[in-house]
Write a structure and sequence with these properties.
Length: about 725
Amino acid sequence: MTTALPIPFDGPSAVFTGADVCREAGLPLPDGCHRPLFEDEVWDFNEVVGLPVQLPICHRHLDFTGIRDPRWRLVAKELLLAMLAPRHPAVAPLPRAHRTALHLRSCVGRLDELTRLFQWLDTRSIASLEALDTHLCEAYLAHRRYVLDEHGAIVGEHSPGTRRAAAQAVVDLVNYRDLFTADRVAATLRPWGGATASAIAEMPSGRTENKTQPVEDAVLQPMLAAALYLVGTLGPHAVQLAHEIREADQHSARRLRGLRKVGAKSRVPAHEISRVLSEYTDTCTPLPMLEDWYVTRRLADGWDPHDPLLRVATGTLARQAGLSQFATPWMSTLRGPLEDALAQVGVDKPFGQDASPIPTADEQDSLQWTLSLHRLEAVALVGIVRTAAIISTAAISGMRASELMELRIGCRRPPQEPVPGLVRYRIASKVVKGQPLGGTDDEWVVIEPVHRAIGLLEQLHEDPADGALLLGRFAFNVRYQWFRNWVNSDAGQRLGLARIPDGPVNLRMLRRTLSLEMAYRPGGLLASKIHLKHIAVATTEGYASRPGGAQAELLSEVNKHESERNLQLVLEEFRNYQQGILPAGPGARSLTEFFAGIDEKLEPSAASAPKIQRNDRDVLNLLTKRAKVLHLGPANYCWFTDPSRALCLKLAGTPTADRPLVGMCDSARCPQATHHPCHRPVWAEHAERTETFLGQLGIPRKTERTRLQADHDRALRVVAEIDAASATMHEESS
């Protein structure tokens, strides 16, 4: 198909001629820097003050050069500036224009899709936007919907997001039609009947389920265990290793300044090399070893594979002697001293020699924290520990990627101790999502492992100047893959770390996992390494300190999940009741009577007849009130309907509290506690462990034996009650 030539157009814009793009958009720039003008082919926003660290460099400019037709290029410029400056006098009167400025990242996406649309129109010999009709709109949407192979056959579909972007490009040309100077769509064009881009793309509403899934349990457990182990155990050693790398770079880097330039014809520096070799032999330090790729290069250059000096890094020795290189002709003269030193101290990788012993992750052994390393291996190991600190911080605090990237050196606030023994840790960053340009300063109340991980990141920073970015912009997906590969490698397995299976992990998934784990506490794999109650308290305090801050949003997510969890648990227990599986414990009778009342409300005319199950929505409407008073204990359900009857509040002397003290719960005696089949394994395991302790007690320890015996008897009684309650209705029905 031949491509139509564009209609020449050199006229200026009717509304934006000579406009200062940043001034119109309200984007501040430092004094003296270049200011992008409307007529520029590339609008560079890299110097704009307050851009989020997370914003990539490629999203800090708008490049219009991909649009060949100058008329359509002007259309694109007018459209993008209108989206950046919705209050401009020429934009505000448009009935379907955006009323709030689009984020720069969104504008880059709009321009990319608009460029694709114009290029597609070029291939179809469309010379003017007036020729764009509903059939062409449908054809472009189909073009962006399907994935084609090299033969043009359909092999799949693009995501709804891609389809929405394609539809939005056409809708924008319609909505901003009256603004365009050089070309515009027909006034009668109403693609897809005026539907929104989301409706056209068949975007899921998101009302039924959050599209961000939590990290799979099988991946979360070994990943978090490895991250915490690296931060807590390897962290201090990694700091020392990073210091050694910097020290070595100051004395033996290839491009070190101040080295004396030498060549093949220079005199043999026997004295200088001998001095360096003496330092190695006097301290019994092995000579530096070459990396494998350089050994391969030497062999290709004709080195004897059996040469004892094959793996000695002579270039490193030369730089330590103040020379730019080790010239090949020197070898005949210096071979003797080199071989003598090699015979005395040997050769080894320069970093990690004589590493300190540490306990392995499985606590089965004590090993050196690392084997000897080449420089690149050492740098990579420091990076792995840094990634472990990022994972720990994100998984435990719930901070978004944008909030992590805004962290700076010195972000840790001094720990506060409002009461003796109760320490509170805070970190400062910025909230970027949903905030104006520059973000909003905020503080997070965190627990000690997060505070420690951020302290480790500060120590690992190459230039820890106060106020410098702690992490900057980073690609978590790439970092996590390196982290997983290292844990699963021989180095990670040597330290007793569990292998991390395949599975997606990103920062959004970690945040959602945290909110779900907090909502479904006290269970969950996160609880095996981190005390979720501490995280919940820290998040609640952060919310109380800054009700409109980031932790308020996290807490609202947790509360939503908690409500959904309670409703589901009450529904499950109601269904168990209908199937004859009854609750046990002091509060069992009250809960059973409540479920019986619900049965009667569902079918009052057939209360004594066989039960008729309604759909879950009808039942949930009746169970909602009881779900609001449900609290999960470690081995029971607490139905906090009457604070005056709560045993925990009586023991604590706080009878007017509005929440139970689950940590003080004695569910075997509290009239509002119930036990269910899901709690049986906890009580059975407790009885088994108590019996083991009893068998290990000596005869003189009568007081301890009496206490443990009572605890053991109580656990067995609870197990028996759960079993009896589950079997009661079955026996009656038979």
